[in-house]
Amino acid sequence: MPRPARSALLLPLLALAGCATTMNTTQRDALDRNQYAWSAAIRWGDIDGAVTLIDPERLKTNPPSALELERYKQVQISAYRDVGETRDLEAGTAAREVDIGVINRHTQAERTVRYRENWGWDAERKTWWLTSGLPDLWAGQ
Prior knowledge:
The protein is α+β, with helices and mostly antiparallel strands. It has helices at 3-43, 47-51, 56-61, 66-71; strands at residues 75-88, 93-104, 110-122, 127-130. It contains four helices and four strands, in the order H-H-H-H-E-E-E-E. Residues 1-22 form the signal peptide. This is Lipoprotein.
């Protein structure tokens, strides 16, 4: 096959590879941005802000109650540590394990809660949504 013909066949393949890389970079950046916003909202007690990052479909079927939201005002977050993460950008899924330091405002007792964030890619809106909901800071209590 003549060299110009091979180049003509190779060029579209390189262009497609570039598109996939750009898409993965876009997804990765969006995930990093949303995970940072989520952890900041939880860390600083901005539960209303955190709720805006939860998958709207989940919020339709399982919204946090007023009582649940009020309970978050009874605690102070002292730490939010990422302890492990998995990402499958092609499948549009990601998960992150975090340890959350929780201080009860009334007793000043501190404890650590392990929470697993699950994230899903919304291709239509080009954003990641948290699919696991708010962390249960009272598990086992």
